[in-house]
Amino acid sequence: MDGIVEVLAVLEAITSSAFGLVSQISEAARSTLSRPLPRRSGELTRLDPVITAGLAPGGVVHGAGFVAGVGALEDARWWLEWFARDAEDRPQRLVVQSDPQAVGFYDYEHLPWYAVPHRTGQRHVTGPYVDYLCTDDYTLTFTIPVVVDEVFLGVGGADVKVATAEQLLLPALRSTSTPLAVINEHGRILSSNSGRRLSGDLVSGPADVAALWADPDSSVFRRVADLPLAVVALEALPA
Amino acid sequence: MSIPFYGHATAAVFAPLESMSRSDLVARRLTDAIALGLLPDGEQLPGELDLAGLFRVSTVTIREALSSLRHQGLIVTRRGRGGGSFVRATRDVAVGLASERLASLSLVDVRDLGDVYAAVAGSCAALAARRSSPEDVDRLRRVAGQLASAPDAGARRRADAHFSIEVAVAAQSPRLYREEVDLQAEVGTLLWLALGDDDSHAEVVTSSQALVEAVAGRDAEAARSAAESRVADATVRLIDFKLNQEA
């Protein structure tokens, strides 16, 4: 279908730059956490230079870091070694509420960017979603599980704002007259060239979406590698 | 300079800037955070310089604000090594703060807050019904379950706040989410004066389960109506509580 390949190429560029940084962070986390026990939160400051180097001004990635597996560290049951670019585009360390008794505390154990790589052992893309743990922004999160001696110790991750992804995708989306959408595994739209089906909407019911994903390389649907992101021609779906 | 007439919106734009002093505003912000439990008992506040940086005010302003909090018994300051300002937020202190706030509001203020909260909560729920994936529905169910089994007032308050946040997140709108958070900060403490007992808890649990089922069934109007009645029920209880207190 006209335009699908061009949109797919932009999507692949976004995912490979996000996962490029996440791989570096995850590798650094793996080597830090492979040192002799005990594993303590303070040691994770070794990752900081790797993380902040990936948050260059004007880059695709807005925030990045390592999120410790629940209970993986000796001295903190929950821990985020995470940086995000502030309004002046400088990386700032994220301070989150880690006291489970406080109102602002939310356990990340069940959030998809953590739970899916934990469960599957595979890298994952979460979103678009409202990231209430970190930036309150509409976000895509790219995560890779960190495993040492077959024990899951957390995830390396990077955030890309939906607005940033849209900015990159829009030229390709606008250059075709075919109505196209970039969707995730639930059929949620990341970006589209149709005013009727917007970012955040579900492109169709669960059955239609499952049927699309069952045939990942048709002329109306193309998936990005092993990831839960794809480009779909909207005419392939019921209105 | 001529000002085009846009009705009441213009009046709001050109209203005088906040009449409180900057140190009062900082004190109010910290008091709200203590009342909400965002700054729990025993928590150490950042140093004066850091606070000045965070609020973008001078250290003199911070010192004035801290002195007022100290005077109200909301923080204690210890000198020397390991010193600093620490939050004192016993349950009595939190209830006292919320009662004072409630006493300063008129009934029509409370009703109006409830109206705005119902509008935001209702819209969040309706959008959540349209936009939730099966995964979102599972998450809402799990959080509603935590709310149902929350044993005491504190746990109920946290679980209820979490549930409302999850509904706002499922709406996929960062702006509505922020409105929900701001309203929780403004109304949340007040509501929990009048909620948390077994009777009101049962009502909250029933309405949250109705909301989850409406979202699962992708019924936007039922979801809106469940969310609106959640807020309306709570507002009624709060107004009754206020009337009884003042009687």
Notes on the structure:
The complex is a heterodimer of chains A (239) and B (247). Chain A has 239 residues and is α+β, with helices and mostly antiparallel strands. Chain A has two domains: 9-161, Beta-Lactamase (2-Layer Sandwich), CATH 3.30.450.20; 164-236, Beta-Lactamase (2-Layer Sandwich), CATH 3.30.450. Helices cover 28% and strands 26% of the residues of chain A. The radius of gyration of chain A is 18 Å and the shape is elongated. The mean pLDDT of chain A is 91. Chain B has helices spanning 8-13, 22-36, 48-55, 59-71, 91-103, 107-131, 134-148, 153-170, 174-194, 198-216, 220-246, and strands at residues 75-78, 84-87. Chain B has eleven helices and two strands. Chain B is 73% helix and 3% strand. Chain B is globular and about 60 Å long. The A-B interface holds A 97, 99, 101-106, 110, 112, 128-130, 132, 136-138, 186-188, 199-202, 206 and B 36-38, 40, 130-131, 133-135, 139, 142, 154, 157-158, 161-162, 165, 168-169, 172-174, 177-178, 181.
> What is the molecular shape of chain A?
elongated
How many domain modules of chain A? 2
**Count, helices of chain B:** 11
Please give the CATH class of the largest domain in chain B. Mainly Alpha
What sequence of helices (H) and strands (E) makes up the elements of chain A? Answer: HHEEEHEEEHEEHEEE
* Percentage of residues in DSSP E strands of chain A: 25-35%
Helix residue percentage of chain B: over 70%
Largest sheet of chain B: 2 strands, antiparallel
Radius of gyration of chain A: 18 Å
**Cα distance spanning the termini of chain B:** 51 Å
Task: Please give the structural blueprint.
The complex is a heterodimer of chains A (239) and B (247).
Chain A: H1 4-33, H2 48-53, E1 63-68, E2 80-85, E3 91-93, H3 112-120, E4 124-130, E5 138-148, E6 151-161, H4 162-174, E7 180-184, E8 189-192, H5 206-214, E9 217-218, E10 221-223, E11 229-233
Antiparallel strand pairs in A: 1-2, 1-6, 2-3, 4-5, 5-6, 7-8, 7-11, 9-10, 10-11
Chain B: H1 8-13, H2 22-36, H3 48-55, H4 59-71, E1 75-78, E2 84-87, H5 91-103, H6 107-131, H7 134-148, H8 153-170, H9 174-194, H10 198-216, H11 220-246
Antiparallel strand pairs in B: 1-2
